[in-house]
Amino acid sequence: MSSPQDQIEALRSQLNDHNYRYYVLAQPEISDREYDELLRALTELEARHPEFASEDSPTQRVGGEALSEFNTVAHAVPMISLANSYDVTEIREFDQRLQKLLPGQAYSYVVEPKVDGVAISLRYENGRLVQALTRGDGRQGDDITANIRTITSIPLHLRGEAPEVLEVRGEAYMTRTGFLKLNQEREEAGLAPFANPRNAAAGSIKLLNSKEVAKRPLDAVWYGVGDLRGIHFDTHRQLLEGLQNFGLKTPPLTRDCANIDEVVIALDENLNARHKYAFEMDGAVVKVNQRDLYDELGSTAKSPRWAMAYKYEPEQVETKLLSITIQVGRTGVLTPVAELEPVSVSGTTVSRATLHNWDEIQRKDVRVGDTVVIEKAGEIIPVVVKVITDKRPQVTSPFPEPTECPVCAQPVSKRAGEVAWRCDNPTCPAKSQSWIKHFVSRKAMNIDHLGEELIKVLLEVELISDPADLYTLHLKKSKFLHIDRMAEKSVQNVLDAIENSKQNDLWRLIHGLGIPQVGERTAQMLEAHFASIDELAHASAEALEALPDIGPIVAENIVTYFQSPVQQHFVSRLKAAGVNFERKASATETVDSILSGKTVVLTGSLTQLTRDDAKELLRKLGANVTGSVSKKTDLLIAGEAAGSKLTKAQSLGIEIWSEQDLVNCVPKDSPPEEAGQLDLF
Prior knowledge:
Layout: H1 4-24, H2 32-48, E1 72-74, E2 84-85, H3 88-101, E3 109-115, E4 118-125, E5 128-134, E6 140-142, H4 145-148, E7 165-174, H5 176-188, H6 197-205, H7 210-213, E8 218-229, H8 236-245, E9 255-257, H9 260-272, E10 281-288, H10 294-297, E11 307-311, E12 317-328, E13 333-345, E14 348-354, H11 358-364, E15 371-377, E16 381-387, E17 412-414, E18 421-423, H12 429-440, H13 452-460, H14 477-480, H15 488-500, H16 506-512, H17 520-529, H18 533-537, H19 541-545, H20 552-563, H21 565-576, E19 599-603, H22 611-620, E20 624-626, E21 635-638, H23 644-651, E22 655-658, H24 659-664
Parallel strand pairs: 2-11, 19-20, 19-21, 21-22
Antiparallel strand pairs: 1-6, 3-9, 3-10, 4-5, 4-7, 7-8, 10-11, 12-13, 12-15, 13-14, 13-18, 15-16, 17-18
Helix pairs in contact: 1-2, 12-13, 16-17
């Protein structure tokens, strides 16, 4: 049997390799749950053997003690800014200047997407991450090493044979989907949302508590270098490939261009691909590929002569604000929404835009009847940018702050330090509807046949008032059958789905409880550390804060939830109804099948299974589900309208299955769950 030190080193190596495959190659070989199991095993081993502790361990990403301030440190090599251009003519003029500076010399270009993030510099010494700095004024920046270490895609130790010194420059950013979720959580908590992903990333990077940074959906890409010792890159393409080999994530869809005409084509291609990127992209960067020409070309006082940024204008459109409605979330937060004349923005038709809160309405002086300018923040959320007051109707009035809930007509209040108004009524139907919708959702208790409209009807006829009432619906079946368009079979489908949900994994219930800021991943992590709801309910704030990704706010939310008499009564009703409160030993078990150990990719639209169900089924059949096709892919499952992944799989001679082939692969005694929603609602 191997020694504890050998086991620890082996687990660290495995996890680092999986991080590299997931973040850099985009070819994961194991599921998130399997990764979490490896990380938990390593965490437990390191706790038992602290003598083998290492700052490079994958477990050391949860953040440490809060800082009182950041130290300012000089850059070994200054971080200079690029010159900006907004017109293709300026890009061609850039090339003409290069021709004059390099008469008769051959050169080419690389074009990469320009990440709208926060400029960062990392310093590796003998492969080990020793420092991370913000750009600052270019000559010196803030030391944010503790915060950067929490970003999972950034290696704490480089892969392969590392040079004496490698200083890399790039951008930290917040993912688009992460930005959307973070703003939703902030609004539910009564906090002001971030204006865009860049502001969110900048604010996150400069938090003094690295444990809080660890909870933010941050990522980074690297595209340049500063101080180098023991390594040399002849071309920019060679640099990008070298960084990737070291385990550093580089910009996607970089394009090699032989001349300026190809650069112009690449700029258009980059713009057309902007919705494919995980980050907010505000342009492209054009760089001379031959790095040995950089010294000869030199720099101006502000920027290098061998590169230029090309900026895209954000797409903004005018439309009419027809009315302002108010939504009530499951935590009672009131959110004003602009109802608009439909208009096309960034490829989609928009008829509603968030106004976030009343402070925002007052600051922009938004009024019903106004002509407003809208855009998609981070290409995701439609927002009102400004009001065109010159086009304002003669008779308008400011939109008033709320005095009562628009749904239950009960008083509303604003808590100290918050910008949001909240409904104080614990039995408000809008809060109940949002909570039940969350509870039954696919990523919580996963109860089929309970769509939003049916939930609304069940509340209106007073068959339910909260999620626990779902488990008593079978006692009210006769009343259920009296609902319009609900036949015997439809009702029974709902009741069967509710009954089946009692045997769900523990994390689904934890997520479904609706504890503020406890999402799917946090619920899964809590399941890994607590064997039951009862254990979790008795956990102290200190014990919770010691867990990965749990900061003081989330810990306090969990403790407060289980100390509430109202929630204690709710949880006890779920337990009395027979809902599973225990971690299942078989949660990660798989069955033997012909897919065991196979690397599988899903593509196209599925009709019998949802994408999440298909992934879970493949996991249970022992397969590793990845997102991209490569030579290591064993099988592609192609649904309807399969595109480039199918073409690539065919060219590589990879085996291809239909969705029906996957369904047929299920053992006879374990059929897949019935998919689909109730067609009546």
